[in-house]
Amino acid sequence: MTGFGGRLRSLRRGAGLTMEQLAEASGVSVRAISDMERGHSRAPQPRTLAALAVALEVSDEEHDLLAGSARAQRMETGRPRLCEPPRDVGDFVGRVAEIDRIGRFPAQVILVHGQPGVGKTALAVHVAARRASRFERRLHLDLRGVDAEPLEPGEAARQLLRALDVSPRRIAGDTDERCSQIRAVLGERHCLVILDNAADEAQVRPLLPGPGGGTVLITSRRMLGGLEGVLRIGLDPLAPDESAALLRSIAGQAGDPSAAGQVGEVARLCGHLPLALRIAGTRLATRTTWTVGNLLDRLAVADRRLAVLSTGDTGVAAAFALSHAQLSGEGRALFRRLTHVPGPDFAAPIVSVLTGADPHDAEDRLDELVELGLLQSVGADRYRFHDLIRLFAEERLRVEEPAGARAATRQRVARWLRDDAAR
């Protein structure tokens, strides 16, 4: 046999070792060594290769030859590595404070949370790319937290174990045992794992390793307050200058100094939301005859703005809809009716006027919206919509409630506001 397997066997026999002796000296299982020598498994990861080289006491030249044959085998098989992270975008902008905080306060479990479209996954992938040299492996797993059926912890554990080259025959059939396996493996290996788009605490808690090992980076629309010992990084929309910089990095037209004012207005109409900015910039970049003014004219029509902020299989409204689908019936009713309230923000008592709910339940209904990133908490007892989410809520109101019901709610709100002002 030629290639990596043949070279490994030749070195083992040259050292006068049986497979059992090499396994004991290297910490690599007999089965794994046998599979590698027979070409029944992919080439080993760098850490495994290093352990084998030390146990075999190979020279630097022999080590380089062994490593080269391992790389060649990976290229020949063309087998994709499981759970590979998405590509880090080359035009990543902003999040300096958040990245600095992650660096200054290292933690084994980091949670990045925020509203839909705010760039949670982009930040996680960017941080993972910047830290690539510190870890043996970087893994990414989409937990599908806003799908109708999120990924079960047992299936998530199985996929991670396979990505870490654990043989399917060694993966436990029982869910609890399988989760225990991945915790043990992650506790021993220096990996960075992105658990993307988490649904809730119950989904991720069984996957988190104990002290030691690598780092787990979770992204979620929820704050996952039930997780202990977690560094929480809450994301807000970008600052105006960062928004303009992102648009300029995507579309050449936005780099024209004479268009600076229009670029700033496009950023404002996008609510400085990274997803909206990236879609707007892409639309501009792919329409070479457009000016920034052409894009601005289309975004200026409020009723059409969400439609403009959609391209291919990506859209701002689609991102909001995934959170909206997670709401209870009472939460959906409140979400759409809150658009009747004038002004930039509001307090909890208005909930009873909008839905007829008990005033004591108002905070619970508002917390549901905040938890899913559809409402922002402003101070201790006031709330507000992101501009684009308000447009989405107005769409839901027009679709889900007849004109007569909308008019009656507007009248109740106006009457309550007059009475409240008088009081």
Automatic annotation (TrEMBL):
<protein>
    <submittedName>
        <fullName>Helix-turn-helix domain-containing protein</fullName>
    </submittedName>
</protein>
<dbReference type="InterPro" id="IPR002182">
    <property type="entry name" value="NB-ARC"/>
</dbReference>
<dbReference type="InterPro" id="IPR010982">
    <property type="entry name" value="Lambda_DNA-bd_dom_sf"/>
</dbReference>
<dbReference type="InterPro" id="IPR027417">
    <property type="entry name" value="P-loop_NTPase"/>
</dbReference>
<dbReference type="Pfam" id="PF13560">
    <property type="entry name" value="HTH_31"/>
</dbReference>
<dbReference type="Pfam" id="PF00931">
    <property type="entry name" value="NB-ARC"/>
</dbReference>
<dbReference type="InterPro" id="IPR001387">
    <property type="entry name" value="Cro/C1-type_HTH"/>
</dbReference>
<feature type="domain" description="HTH cro/C1-type">
    <location>
        <begin position="8"/>
        <end position="63"/>
    </location>
</feature>
